[in-house]
Amino acid sequence: MTEIDNSEVIQEILQNFITVSGKKTSKKFILGVVNNVIRDLKPSLDFLKFISVEKSNNPNEICKVKVENNLLIRYQSKNNLGQSLNLLIKEIYRGIIGDDIYYNTDLREIAQEVHEACKKLVEEFKINLKFGSALFGADGGIKQELSVVEFANNSDVLKPVINALIDLLEKGMAKKEKTRYEAVKTITETINELERESKVFKHVLLETSPLKSEDGIYNVKTEFSVKNVFFFNSQYEYAVEAVSKIDGLSAEELTNAIHLLLNKIGDTTSIEHKPMFVTELKRLLSEKCLAKLTEIGVKLDYIDTRLKEEGYYILLKQTLRALIELLGWHTSKKYAVESVGTTLEKLAEKHANVIQYVKIDKSKCEEGIGAVTIDHKINEIPPYDLAKALRDIIITVHKDHANYSNMATFMDNFEEEIGEQYYTELENIGVNPHLIGLRYT
What we know:
Layout: H1 5-24, H2 27-41, E1 51-55, E2 63-67, H3 71-74, H4 78-97, H5 107-117, H6 119-124, E3 131-132, H7 154-173, H8 180-194, E4 204-206, E5 220-222, E6 224-232, E7 237-244, H9 251-268, H10 277-284, H11 287-295, H12 300-308, H13 312-330, H14 333-347, H15 352-355, E8 358-360, E9 372-374, H16 383-401, H17 407-418, H18 420-429, H19 433-439
Antiparallel strand pairs: 1-2, 3-6, 4-5, 6-7, 8-9
Helix pairs in contact: 1-2, 1-4, 1-5, 2-4, 7-8, 7-9, 7-10, 8-9, 13-14, 13-16, 13-17, 14-16, 17-19
């Protein structure tokens, strides 16, 4: 071989490899991948400084590969050049399979066609077209039997957590009854919303197809980094060693992401289901998964406490607060709290199963609702019983203590004070403030 042959060899091999790869993907895509790879490898592979891949004006060509006749290339050994080309080719494989559109490109066909086009040069420079490292997209469609340690990685814990949340929503935990498909849609929309708050969710993909496994488990995917693509035997078959991109994130980032997701979904549940949200979630998760959540610092008990305070607990508390505020407008906080206390005492026997959980500290009457303590066991009361108690408390407070000319005006002010959210929740459990205003005017 003459001194310039090395340049010609590199040019011919790369021209063929890029041309075949471009036919399997697209001209624009492969040019982008190749130039990105060359740019990234230049600091470690000096010979790449003398290689350029440019767009061709010829519609029948993918590109133009140019290799300068530099001394570094001219006198480089075939073995060294072959190793460098192997790395370059592996990184191009990496770019192809790492794309969300071209992740399932058949690398076997690329290897086969390039080998046939320049077999002698490939073998002489020991170019190994049968293996490479690659980034893997969200769904490679390549199955490989791997031994997986359950919950060993960040990605392992997401599938059971997300599927448990789907189950909870499907079973009526949400404010509106949902089918399983609608529950999946809600989780998907939530994950998309949370992308702005946590980069974990940028790599999570939930399969929204109605098709599911025999157990009804939806496939929770994450974008993968495939560490290696292995080609083997004469058929050029290949396998993939995949690692989820979120496994490269810290445990703290995963913990924060799970907190965001659980809090967001917990907030969408109806008021009667909030107190049981975490209990039901724990029931659906395995002991191993719960142990993993505890290990990484997910505070389910903290979420449980917060949601319990947003169940019937918060509805009763907001009702009493609104009544105290209304009475206090024309009198004082102290009088208002004492009046509500008198009402509760009057109704204590009739509604014992509700009022037993409400205590008023008479030494704190000046603090308004701050004087009222409610036991979280109120969340276990049937909604019908709670509705009857709240209805009678409202009517009795107005009748015995309110300085209002009529009930309708009182209830209009009550609606404004308690706010739309809790006014609607009262209606949901069977308390209709509007009808109370009309009936008892």
